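Lecture notes, unit on protein representations.

Consider one protein chain, 317 amino acids long.
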Amino acid sequence: MPLRFFLARLIDLVVVLFGISIVVFLMIRLIPGDAVAIMLGANTEITPESIAELRGRLGLDRPMIEQYFVWISGVLQGDFGTSIWTGRPVSEEIAANIWPTIELTLLSVLFGAAFSIPLGAFMAQARGRGSEVAVRVGAIAGLTIPSFWLGIVSIFMVSKLFPGWQALGYVPFTQDPLGNLSRMILPVIALSLPMLANLSRLVRSAMLDALGQDYVRTAKAKGAPRRVVVYKHALRNALIPFVTSVGVSAGYLLGGAIVIEQVFAIPGLGRLVLGAISERNYPLVQATILVMTAGFVIVNFLVDLLYAVIDPRISRR
C-alpha cells in the first residue's frame, strides 16, 4: 500500500473525527430549552442558584468556542469529564461497559460475514433452482424482520424448548467462556440476521457478475475445475464490494447493539447511554455518543485500507 494513499485516508479520518466532535458538542447545546434545568429537574428543586452552580461546574458559563476547546483538549488526553450522578470519571464508566458491546458487535460481524459468503456463492451457483429461490426468500425475510422482534421471539422459544438455558444477562468471557458464548448466541443471531441477509444477496449479485466475465470463461476453457473457477477466480473479485459493505454494516451493528442490549439485558454501551439520557447525565451522553460514532468512522477507515489491499488499483487513483 503506497504511503501517500495511507496518509490521505488518515487525513480524511482526522477531518471526519473533528467534524463529528463538533456535531456531538453542539447536539445537546442547541436543543430547545435549558439543558441544565432539565438535568436538575430529574432529582432536585430548580433554583437560580442551583442552575448557576451546575452551569459553572460543567463549564457552560463560558463562551461556546471556549467550551469546545476545553472539552476537546480533555478528550484528546482521555478526559471525558465527570459523571453527574456517580461522580466517577466518564472514561471509567465507558471502560466498564464497552467490552460487552465490542464483543456483541464483533461476533455479529464475524457470524454475518462468515455465513454470507457461502450462502451468496450457493445462490449464485444454483440460480433459478427451487433451493436458490427458497434461500433468496429467506434472505429477503431476514432484511424485513426487526432485530428486537427476533430477539424477543427467540427468548420465548428458548424458554419453552430449553428451560435451563440462560438467555439473558452477560458473563465475561475470561470468567466463564462457555457461559459467555451461550448467552451471546441469541443476541448475535438477532443482531446479525439483517447483515447476513444483505451481504448474502450482495455476494450473489457480485458472483453472478463475476461469473460472466471474460477471465472466468477463459479459466473454464482451460479446463479449470468448477470449484477453482467459482471460489478462486469469481469469489475473489466479488469480495471487493463485500468488504466495503461489511465495514458499513459493522457501523450499523454498533448502533443496533443499543436495542439488542436492552432486549437481552446486556450491560453494554447501549444500556449506559439510554440510562444516561433518562438521567440527563449530560457529560456521559456526550462522551458515549462520541465514542460510538468515532468507532463507526474508524472501522470504515480500516475497511478503506483493506479495500486497497484487495484491489491495489484503488490506491493508485
